[in-house]
Design brief:
Layout lengths: L1 H8 L1 E7 L28 H13 L4 E6 L3 H7 L8 E4 L4 H16 L4 E4 L5 E3 L1 H16 L3 E6 L10 E7 L9 E7 L4 H10 L2 E11 H11 L1 H14 L2 H11 L8 H11 L3 E6 L2 E3 L4 H8 L7 E4 L4 E5 L3 E5 L4 E5 L4 E6 L2 E6 L6 H10 L7
Parallel strand pairs: 1-2, 1-4, 2-3, 6-10, 12-14, 13-15, 14-16
Antiparallel strand pairs: 4-9, 5-11, 6-9, 7-8, 7-9, 8-10, 16-17
């Protein structure tokens, strides 16, 4: 076991706080993205919840947050003990490979041999002892040289998540439940998802990646050599204020936009270099208003979930979710599975079934130039 504890001593948590969460528009906006909201009624933002989960594992001084320049003040207000040198600001979003790869490159230069774990800022996780146990196993697996992910044991045939197909046990010291990954599969249709669930061989992909930083960079270099070169060059300039700005202006805009699932996880899986730790904790990526409704009504379909500090809602024989930020009285009569999101300058009305389509509204608003409400 001594081996594992020394690996945990080298662990550094990375929180990419980037995504706007466009399926949660108009609640989530460019200037107030999903991770800066309290979506669970816990009294604090999802970002703060994420920090509180990770701090006991890595220590507060070993958490790095990668976020947009526009969010710096809000992030620092949420996380008063976040060390200044652990705030990495993106000039514009370049997807997860650039964000996590840059963190890996900076940390590897500062501390060769570091093991990093990347955890989204906007997921909801319950049962922290089980989460901690999974992360500890993932760190041991990463120390053994694997790119490691934590897959969530599915509780229903969800069509909203990607899936991980698991293979045989790997027998890693300190990571007894580590399995090989045979493939990643995209969001399935319902029939396929039911088959996955019945087979017992599939886990939900929660996009949590734990790896030695040098191994992660090696995988990026193998699949995306130009992106890799840019990240190393940025990292080299990063810790000197005189060289950082010019390097970011020169290199960042040209970096390829690609999710780490595609640039690292899938290629590693196809070579047998990826392991997965099954996670038995409750997890939700709050990907749309349907999952937000489920989260806040305790999974009971007959209920109406109400979010908003001063929400004034009258309801008769109605179910779904109301998110109110306007102070206006909202009355619902005889509507099932409805989604109402009322903000001072934008109103969304849809149903749980169509919640995934909110992103299309956001894309349409961009095209029509109505970016003032985005």
């Amino acid at each position: 076991m001594a081996h594992t504890s020394s690996a945990l001593d080298r662990f550094y948590a990375v929180i990419p706080a980037g995504g706007i969460g466009s399926r949660l528009w108009p609640l989530s906006r460019a200037d107030a993205p999903k991770f800066l909201h309290d979506l669970t009624g816990s009294g604090q933002t999802l970002l703060r919840d994420t920090w509180d989960r990770l701090a006991p594992l890595s220590g507060e001084q070993r958490i790095m947050v990668v976020t947009g320049r526009a969010h710096r003040a809000a992030v620092e207000a949420q996380l008063p003990t976040l060390a200044d040198h652990n705030v990495v600001l993106e000039s514009e979003p370049r997807d997860s490979t650039a964000a996590i790869g840059l963190a890996a490159a900076i940390l590897e230069r500062r501390e060769p041999g570091v093991i990093i774990g990347s955890f989204a800022a906007d997921h909801v996780i319950k049962n922290l002892p089980l989460f901690g146990a999974a992360v500890r196993e993932a760190v041991a697996s990463a120390d053994a040289g694997y790119i490691t992910t934590i897959g969530i044991r599915p509780t229903e045939p969800s069509v909203g998540f990607g899936y991980i197909r698991t293979g045989e046990g790997l027998g890693i010291d300190g990571a007894p439940s580590a399995l090989s990954v045979t493939e990643f599969v995209e969001k399935p249709d319902l029939e396929t998802a039911e088959g996955y669930l019945a087979s017992g061989a599939y886990l939900w992909n929660a996009s949590m990646f734990i790896s030695r930083a040098d191994r992660l960079l090696e995988e990026i270099g193998r699949s995306k050599p130009e992106l890799h070169a840019g990240l190393l060059e940025l990292a080299e300039a990063w810790d000197d204020p005189a060289t950082r700005g010019p390097a970011v202006d020169r290199i960042w805009p040209g970096l390829e936009k690609i999710a780490i699932d595609y640039a690292v996880a899938e290629p590693a899986a196809s070579r047998g270099a990826l392991s997965v730790i099954p996670g038995y904790f409750d997890w939700d990526d709050v990907g749309d208003f349907a999952s937000l409704a489920k989260l806040n009504s305790g999974g009971r379909k007959s209920d109406l979930a109400i979010l908003g500090e001063n929400a004034r809602v009258l309801s008769d024989a109605s179910s779904g979710i109301v998110v109110s930020q306007s102070g206006r009285v909202i009355s619902l009569i005889g509507v099932k599975d409805i989604v109402v999101v009322d903000t001072p300058d934008a109103l969304l009305v849809t149903t749980s079934e169509n919640a995934q389509r909110v992103k299309a509204v956001v894309d349409a608003l961009k095209l029509t130039g109505s970016s003032d409400v985005l």
